[in-house]
Write a structure and sequence with these properties.
The complex is a heterodimer of chains A (76) and B (366). By secondary structure, chain A is α+β, with helices and mostly antiparallel strands. Chain A has 3 helices and 3 strands. A 3-stranded antiparallel β-sheet of chain A has the order 1-2-3, with no helix packed on it. The two termini of chain A are 19 Å apart. Chain B has 14 helices and 9 strands. Chain B starts with 6 loop residues before the first strand and ends in a 23-residue tail after the last helix. In chain B, strands 7-6-5-4-3-2-1-8-9 form a 9-stranded mixed β-sheet. With 366 residues, chain B is α/β, with parallel strands linked by helices. The longest helix of chain B is centred in the middle third of the chain and has 17 residues. In chain B, helix 1 runs parallel beside helix 2. Chain B is globular, with a radius of gyration of 20 Å. In chain B, strand 8 and strand 9 form a beta hairpin. The chains are: A alpha+beta (76), B alpha/beta (366). Chains A and B meet through strand 2 of A and loops of B.
């Protein structure tokens, strides 16, 4: 993941890139190869304490599933 | 109109151990004595990043033919770029692979010419297939993105399912099914490389099925030959719009083939700043916007999507780089492409194709 001056946070992949918006960059940052899926979700739930934790869980799972489908991410 | 380049294709050398008949390098190649130094590339990467470039593709020829490949990777990483190595894999011993990964390599794209050794080695013009298999098994042990790029054409599309199976066996994260693009050496050999229409149809079906089956495990990207398309490709995302290529001597180009177009003066990084070349040089401005377009492109609603197609292809076929790309179904000269397709009929496939093999550049001073 890098920060482009004009595009903002982007996740760079072979031959393509994904512009990350909203909580996207923070989620990617949390996926450090050490944290479990539950750890990532818990971290976001505490960082966005005003939002419904179940909604956060659902959105994180959907976001990560789409990254996995694009082969931007692996569950170790 | 400002265009921000996102990718830099760094052709660091034209030297290569392979002689692939589909190579898109220009026929007139740069000799070793003309090559930019390590320091010159380092400066180029920094300038490119300042312009907005995010991705660096180290290619050639064979980029590993440069003994400073590790430093080039390090310089790319230091400039903040995503570093991709596009390689034949020949001679990539484990210690060198480790050094490249440690230097900051993000992604390796390894070429395969076929699923079967004899056919692969015929296309490459040398024994290479076994070494690639051995390397692939080692690459996947490293924490690095790995793409298998298999160049497909009439002579190997029958084995597309086996090539996909090979990609699965090698556990690549991404497979690129890359139909030959007809420039350079590929243009010379096009009558023996162009697939039949049936083969193109089968390719789409096979790739679609494999994508479904491998969803989440492997990403498959597929490029079809534009000769069979109804409309042209948005070549390079448009001339001088998203992408630039720098050849081994530091000449900055909008694509691999642009030097075929006469009357254009391409500047090099030794004499001009990269920013000036990208933003202001006449060569880069030449086909930006739509003022240069002929009909039907000028009035076509697709012009902002495909930019009239490929200028080099227009020149190669019609002699006029401003012409509509002849692959377009609306192009006045579409018949020139139809003639090549007619010649690709199964009945005309030669058992012994008389390939024009890629040569290596001489070491003579220019």
């Amino acid at each position: 993941m890098t920060h482009s001056k004009d595009l903002g946070p982007v996740l760079l992949l072979p031959e393509s890139m994904l512009r990350l918006t909203g909580p996207g960059p923070r989620i990617v940052e949390l996926c450090d190869g050490m944290r479990s899926l539950d750890d990532v979700i818990a971290a976001l739930q505490s960082e966005f304490s005003g939002a419904d934790p179940e909604v956060i869980r659902g959105e994180v799972l959907a976001f990560l599933a789409s990254l996995r489908e694009k082969r931007a991410l692996d569950f170790l | 109109m400002t265009f921000v380049p996102r990718a830099l294709i760094a052709e660091v050398t034209h030297r290569c151990p392979l002689r692939c008949v589909y190579c898109s390098n220009p026929l007139e190649m740069r000799s070793r004595s003309e090559e930019l130094s390590t320091e010159e590339w380092q400066r180029v990467f920094t300038e490119a990043a300042a312009l907005g470039v995010l991705q660096l593709h180290l290619t050639g020829g064979e980029p590993l033919a440069r003994p400073d490949a590790e430093q080039l990777v390090r310089s790319g990483r230091a400039a903040g770029l995503y570093v991709n190595l596009i390689t034949s894999g020949i001679g990539l011993a484990e210690t060198r692979l480790e050094a490249l990964v440690a230097a900051g390599l993000d992604h390796v794209q390894l070429s395969f010419q076929d699923s079967e050794q004899a056919n692969a080695d015929e296309i490459a013009g040398t024994r290479a297939h076994a070494a690639k298999l051995e390397l692939a098994r080692r690459i996947r042990k490293h924490r690095i993105a790995f793409t298998m790029n298999v160049v497909v054409h009439r002579r190997n599309l029958a084995r597309l399912p086996q090539m996909i199976a090979l990609a699965e066996e090698l556990q690549v994260g991404r497979l690129e099914v890359a139909n030959v693009q007809y420039y350079g050496w590929a243009f010379e050999n096009r009558s023996q490389l162009l697939p039949t229409r049936e083969q193109v149809r089968d390719t789409v079906a096979i790739v679609d099925a494999a994508r479904e089956r491998l969803k989440g495990r492997m990403r498959i990207d597929c490029v079809l030959p534009d000769y069979y398309a109804r409309y042209p490709k948005a070549c390079m995302g448009g001339w001088g719009q998203g992408l630039m290529l720098i050849d081994p001597a530091g000449v900055v180009l909008p694509c691999h083939a642009a030097r075929v177009i006469p009357g254009l003066n391409f500047d090099d990084v030794r004499s001009k700043a990269l920013r000036w070349i990208w933003e202001e040089s006449a060569a880069f401005q030449r086909f930006r916007g739509d003022e240069w377009m002929q009909e039907p492109c000028r009035s076509c609603e697709r012009k902002t999507r495909d930019f009239g197609g490929c200028r080099c292809q227009a020149f190669l076929y019609t002699g006029d780089p401003d012409a509509t790309d002849p692959v377009c179904s609306l192009a006045p000269k579409r018949g020139l492409i139809d003639a090549v397709i007619a010649n690709a009929a199964p009945a005309n496939v030669q058992a012994d194709p008389n390939w024009v093999y890629r040569i290596n550049p001489s070491n003579a001073l220019r």
